[in-house]
Amino acid sequence: MSLLPPEQPKAQHELSLTRLIDAPRSKVYRAWTEPQLLAQWWGPNGMTTPECEMQLWVGGLFRTVMRAPDGSEYPNQGVFLEIVPPARIVFTDAFGPGWVPSNKAFMTAVVTFDDVHGKTQYTARAWHWSAADCQAHEEMGFHRGWGESLDRLVAVVTTQMPD
Fold first, then answer.
1. How far apart are CA 92 and CA 87, in angstroms?
2. Which positions fall inside the Activator of Hsp90 ATPase homologue 1/2-like C-terminal domain (predicted)?
3. Are 50 and 69 in contact (CB under 8 A)?
4. What residues form DSSP beta bridges with 75?
5. Model pLDDT for residues 29-39, shown as the tens digit of each residue
6. Is the full-model pTM beyond 0.85?
7. Residue 3 falls inside a structural domain
């Protein structure tokens, strides 16, 4: 059961990215929900994801560590708020496991996978608590970084995953 209406209006402090992917949504959803697949594409070009842990249930852990070419690491941890296979995943860094509030909530991500004649209309939305956080995320390179991640995701689901 989804907590969000099917046509959620744009949030006040939202950044988003949408693309039609030439792969069925079951494959795109799998690439998002299987740690060994997510690790292949998560992060912008040049980054790797040596650590990815998922507890795929509401309140379950979603943790990644991205590594830059210079060895710098960028850990992220949060929890899943909603999981509707194969249609939607919602996660946030506002909480950790056990619903313990994080030190600094930055965003909630809503990722949807809509079937369009066997292809996937993919939409990733990043909701922020403030205009400042939204602007900071945009200045960090949200569109470039999430776009490059999406390019990598498309490569995984169209060339590396069997049907």
1. 17
2. 22-157
3. no
4. 65
5. 999 999 999 99
6. yes
7. no
Q: Indicate whether 53 belongs to any domain.
A: yes
CB distance 76 to 137 below 8 Å? no
Mean of the per-residue pLDDT values for the chain? 93
Q: Is 137 helix (H, G, I), strand (E, B) or coil?
A: helix
Contact 68, 74 (CB under 8 A): yes
Q: Which domain, by its residues, includes 126?
A: 14-160
Backbone angles phi, psi at 21, to 5 degrees: -110, 135
Structure tokens at 41: 């594409």
Tokens standing for residue 32: 């998002």
Residues of the chain with pLDDT > 70, as a percent, come to 94
Angle at the Cα of 104 from the Cα atoms of 97 and 100, rounded to 5 degrees: 25
* Of 142, 93, 120, 98, the residue nearest 19 (C-alpha): 120
